[in-house]
Amino acid sequence: MSSQAVDQSVQAEHVLSVGVSIVLYRTRAIQIRSLVDHLFEQGVARVYLVDNSPPAFGAFDGWAANDRVTTIQTGRNLG
C-alpha cells in the first residue's frame, strides 16, 4: 500500500460521525469560516449553518460552497 493510500485511510478513520449545527442571526457565515474549518480539522463529518436573519441580510454572501456544509435560510428568527 502506498503512503498516500495509508494517509487517506488514516484520515478516513478520523472523520467522526458527528454533525454540528450553528444558528446564525445577523452574522455573516464568512465570519465563522475559521470555526467551520477547525471543526473539520477535528474530524467533524458535517456542519449545518442555519440562518435565522431577515431574508435581505445575506448571511451567505461571499460563502464558498463546501460539500460538507449544509446552509439553511429560514428568513425569520425561530427563537
Keywords:
79 residues; alpha/beta; three-stranded parallel β-sheet; elongated
Question: How would you describe what is shown here?
Answer:
With 79 residues, the protein is of the alpha/beta class. 25% of the residues lie in helices and 22% in strands. It has two helices and three strands; from the N terminus they run H-E-H-E-E. The chain has a three-stranded parallel sheet, covered by helices on one side. The chain is elongated and about 40 Å long. The chain starts with a helix and ends in a 6-residue tail after the last strand. The model has no long low-confidence stretch (mean pLDDT 85).
Helix/strand-derived class?
Answer: alpha/beta
Beta-strand segment tally: 3
CA distance, first residue to last residue? 52 Å
Rg to the nearest angstrom?
15 Å
So what's the oligomer here?
single chain
**Helix amount:** 25-40%
Major beta sheet, strand line-up: 1-2-3
Low-confidence stretches: none
Shape: elongated
Order of helices and strands: HEHEE
Main pleated sheet: 3 strands, parallel
Strand content: 15-25%
* Mean pLDDT reading: 85
Number of helices: 2
Compile the SSE list and pairings.
Layout: H1 3-13, E1 19-24, H2 33-41, E2 46-51, E3 69-73
Parallel strand pairs: 1-2, 2-3
